[in-house]
């Protein structure tokens, strides 16, 4: 369930409850009351039914992609140990 | 035009009443047209593929005639208005039938209470769109209905054109190995109108793509002649619906490469936010064309050399099987079936 | 699109798919349930089954809030339009769900004032713009969506809006998972845990699955790489004989959940003693109703509602499909009396319902392939 999309905070509205968020050049006003502390412009958040649900951590995203990239490297390393090559490196 | 393709048997229309879904351009619309309207009006053609324009032979000339009604809320939106749609929509139906648009008649149903300024703006839009498209408005009709009955204004246009003898368009000519081309970005119009309604509170720098596609159609016929198998302007129901229609009519498989389909960032963003698929969103200024494989590059060059065709792309191919199916292949190879739209695309939150 | 495109990288997808093949024991079947309807939709949209070895079966769970809604609730919501001239507002997902006298969309075509909204705040805004009419918001969703309804209700109370109520059909995910685990038909090896519900409730609520039932749970994101990586993590647990809760969606799911969201839920909602779930029957403590302090904004408190229970048509096997006991095409009505155009049950309506997904993405392809042979 739950279609939630990453969006970037563009600006905060006066009052502290609302912010403009941008998703691939589309903007919407969303409520930020579920995030403590409030997000700052430039931060990425997950948006669902007009509310920011959580922050998105760039560090964790990068770490995750690094782990995923290693899957292939691990396999290649293991294969070389076995003396079997997968072929030209795609890296 | 007769074909030798066996089509699935047409079912009589069994719904108790007409619903909005029947006007959305997808499966339900097709059932209404094929199951109720065609058998009543043109029983001798029942079961044959339906085309955007009909051809009529007058002496030695082959003419094309088509009609379309335009119903849109709101009447004005970024990039155009109902007046533009009314002209371009009919011009485009003639163009994809391989015809040069000659003249239009224009029938209005105006809701009582509509400001005269609104009507004037739309008539100016109609006139301007006709000038840009190079077609004459030669007549029409006007009716006024009670307040509450017409969303402001409904326009129906009927267009007449002369079929280019070099155009040989039919589902019967489509072959495995043919290529699928589009003339530009898809989804612009439908998303523009959705945003213009204001219910969803989304803002984007996006406008309708409404325009005459005749220059592209003419360029295609010029460049590749009979290697152009079939064309359609993918309006309501989007690219997916048009491809499902040709797939059904010719019995073959149409495979889209998702990465190649041109979609603007704004349309992609709006679709992701709302849970919509750009392939199901209406276009008002595009052609989807099926061209013989060997001529696909020439066809693409021909479209791209027409102003406004810079974003044209080859987006897929025709396979023999699975029959009557439209597939979309992702960059990593995952393949999904792309279905015809059921009703209007509805945003979702789940 | 950032945080989307990177997780659709073809090279990384192929690598993850290869890793899955390396980890899988070809001699045994794997039955992994994805609880969340959003994951069901993603699996079909991204054709992930194409990337998995044939002995991994993805079983679709009951995490589709529209699918598990009993038909009677739609009828009750719509009765407010008939009896109190209310404007009925809801999400797009609900518009095509069949009620006894038509879906909200069909009722709209017949003149009822039904408005689709993107956010519950839009429904509240409408109520403030239309003081002459009552506006009811038909709320659906799991814990992902309930906090937004809660904040909307707090705002309604702050502003003392008198013509706005919520008809709550919010349900909670843990009791549904427990019902699946306790079901005698259950033969599951592991769970792909809900992604967005977990941004609210965190990872701790799933601990009982690993501890008491010895099944691995991996909370997953929704992009192809997320789901594939989650399956890698599940396979590693199974290979190692572990049963733990892991968080693959760590870039946005906090282990402890979202405190402001949980506070909002506690302030506004309480658990119903029990609630009827289509297919799973009555489950205790599984659904949210408004607290007494919010009675003025609770449609069920303000308007006498009969609590109608409407059974699914006899032949429909929605329940079994929801529990993963049957595959959609094994239901007797699938593709015949029940199609996306003429849905009998909500699983065929909701874009994340197993039946709708199966119909659109797979069934037609299979039928076409059969025709060709």
The shape of chain B is globular
Number of domains of chain B: 3
The CATH superfamily of the largest domain in chain C appears as: HypD, alpha/beta domain 2
Radius of gyration of chain B: 19 Å
Could you say which structural class the secondary elements and strand pairing of chain B correspond to? alpha+beta
The CATH architecture classification of the largest domain in chain C is: 3-Layer(aba) Sandwich
Q: What topology, given as strand order, has the largest sheet of chain B? A: 10-12-8-13-11-14-15
Low-confidence stretches of chain C: none
Give a topology summary.
The complex is a heterotrimer of chains A (91), B (350) and C (373).
Chain A lengths: L4 E8 L5 E6 L2 E6 L12 E5 L2 E5 L2 H24 L10
Antiparallel strand pairs in A: 1-2, 1-4, 2-3, 4-5
Chain B lengths: L26 H15 L12 E5 L2 E10 L5 E2 L2 E2 H14 L3 E13 L4 H18 L2 E10 L7 E11 L15 E4 L5 H9 L5 E3 L9 H11 L3 E5 L5 H13 L2 E5 L7 H10 L13 E4 L4 H9 L8 E7 L5 E5 L5 E3 L13
Parallel strand pairs in B: 5-6, 11-14
Antiparallel strand pairs in B: 1-2, 2-7, 3-4, 5-7, 8-12, 8-13, 10-12, 11-13, 14-15
Helix pairs in contact in B: 2-3, 2-5, 5-8
Chain C lengths: L9 H14 L6 E7 H9 L10 E8 L7 H14 L2 E4 L13 H6 L4 E3 L3 H10 L5 E7 L4 H13 L5 E7 L2 H10 L7 E4 L3 H5 L5 H7 L3 E3 L4 H17 L4 E3 L11 H10 E3 L2 E4 L3 E4 L3 E3 L8 H4 L15 H5 L31 H19 L1
Parallel strand pairs in C: 1-2, 1-7, 3-4, 3-5, 5-6, 7-8, 8-9
Antiparallel strand pairs in C: 10-13, 11-12
Helix pairs in contact in C: 1-10, 2-14, 6-11
Describe this structure in words.
The complex is a heterotrimer of chains A (91), B (350) and C (373). Chain A has one domain: Roll (SH3 type barrels), CATH 2.30.30. Chain A contains one helix and five strands; from the N terminus they run βββββα. Chain A has one helix at 58-81; strands at residues 5-12, 18-23, 26-31, 44-48, 51-55. Chain B has 350 residues and is of the alpha+beta class. Chain B folds into three domains: 11-44, no CATH class; 54-163, 2-Layer Sandwich (60s Ribosomal Protein L30, Chain: A); 171-337, PurM-like C-terminal domain (Phosphoribosyl-aminoimidazole Synthetase, Chain A, domain 2), CATH 3.90.650. Chain B has helices at residues 27-41, 82-95, 116-133, 188-196, 214-224, 238-250, 265-274, 296-304, and strands spanning 54-58, 61-70, 76-77, 80-81, 99-111, 136-145, 153-163, 179-182, 202-204, 228-232, 253-257, 288-291, 313-319, 325-329, 335-337. A seven-stranded mixed β-sheet of chain B has the order 10-12-8-13-11-14-15. Chain B is globular and about 55 Å long. Chain C folds into two domains: 1-311, HypD, alpha/beta domain 2 (Rossmann fold), CATH 3.40.50.11740; 318-372, no CATH class. Chain C contains 14 helices and 13 strands. A five-stranded parallel β-sheet of chain C has the order 2-1-7-8-9. A four-stranded parallel β-sheet of chain C has the order 4-3-5-6, sandwiched between helices. The two termini of chain C are 41 Å apart. The model of chain C has no long low-confidence stretch (mean pLDDT 91). The chains are: A alpha+beta (91), B alpha+beta (350), C alpha/beta (373). Chains in contact: A-B, A-C, B-C. At the A-C interface, strand 1, strand 4, strand 5 and helix 1 of A face helix 1, helix 5, helix 6, helix 8 and helix 10 of C. Strand 3 (26-31) of chain A pairs antiparallel with strand 9 (202-204) of chain B, so a sheet runs across the interface.
